[in-house]
């Protein structure tokens, strides 16, 4: 845990954050735009600078929890959004977190874990445990080759791989090539909506 925190904090401190697009991504933004119930509880794990949380907050969603293992992006988020409750900024390891949410948003989080069978299984089990009955895991997953290189993030995957880990716990509402990816990720992402079984 400390190693993991140090690793990600160093990346933020060195501005070695190639994943950070600087704004909410279009697929997640469009998903948020069609949500009608603003009282739902939403967790964003591995949120980084959490532009999507900022977007939700400004749209009037209040029950948003922004989680990261590194304090650097959480502090920046707090500075950018001084009214956002500090109690909803969670400096925690996702795998140790306890709670239950209506919705969990995923973006470049799954792909940050070394892609062992065990890690991917643990991710799926943890996600389902953090959702209320019928809760949803929604977001984007890279559709890029999974190479044998265990150092090089983002670690890839494809539809078949994601379904292998998620389908024991979730009904797949959709998992399709993402039509509205940001240009650098065009044709390299799947958009998914999974509902807790
Ligand atoms: C590739 S970055 C993605 C950040 C953000 N989702 C985005 O799209 O900009 C992965 C993030 O997950 C965080 N992280 C990695 N392992 C974590 C864990 N076990 N628990 C919570 N956060 C974690 C890192 O600190 C980092 O901010």
Provide a short characterization of the protein structure.
This protein has helices at 2-13, 26-33, 51-59, 71-80, 117-129, 159-166, and strands at 42-44, 64-68, 89-91, 101-107, 131-142, 170-177, 189-196. With 197 residues, it is of the alpha/beta class.
Index terms:
single chain; about 200 residues; alpha/beta; Rossmann fold; seven-stranded mixed β-sheet; 6 helices; globular; binds S-adenosylmethionine
Structure class? alpha/beta
How many discrete structural domains?
1
Helix content: 25-40%
Which CATH class?
Answer: Alpha Beta
Tell me the distance between the termini: 30 Å
At CATH level 3, the topology is Rossmann fold
Strand order in the sheet with the most strands: 3-2-1-4-5-7-6
Shape: globular
CATH superfamily: Vaccinia Virus protein VP39
How would you characterize the overall build of this protein?
With 197 residues, this protein is of the alpha/beta class. The protein has a single domain, classed as Rossmann fold. It has helices at residues 2-13, 26-33, 51-59, 71-80, 117-129, 159-166, and strands spanning 42-44, 64-68, 89-91, 101-107, 131-142, 170-177, 189-196. Strands 3-2-1-4-5-7-6 form a seven-stranded mixed sheet, with helices on both faces. The radius of gyration is 16 Å and the shape is globular. The model has no long low-confidence stretch (mean pLDDT 97). Bound molecules: S-adenosylmethionine (SAM). The site of S-adenosylmethionine (SAM) has 21 residues, from helix 1 and strand 2. S-adenosylmethionine binds at residues 4, 8, 19-20, 45-49, 67-70, 73, 93-95, 107-109, 112.
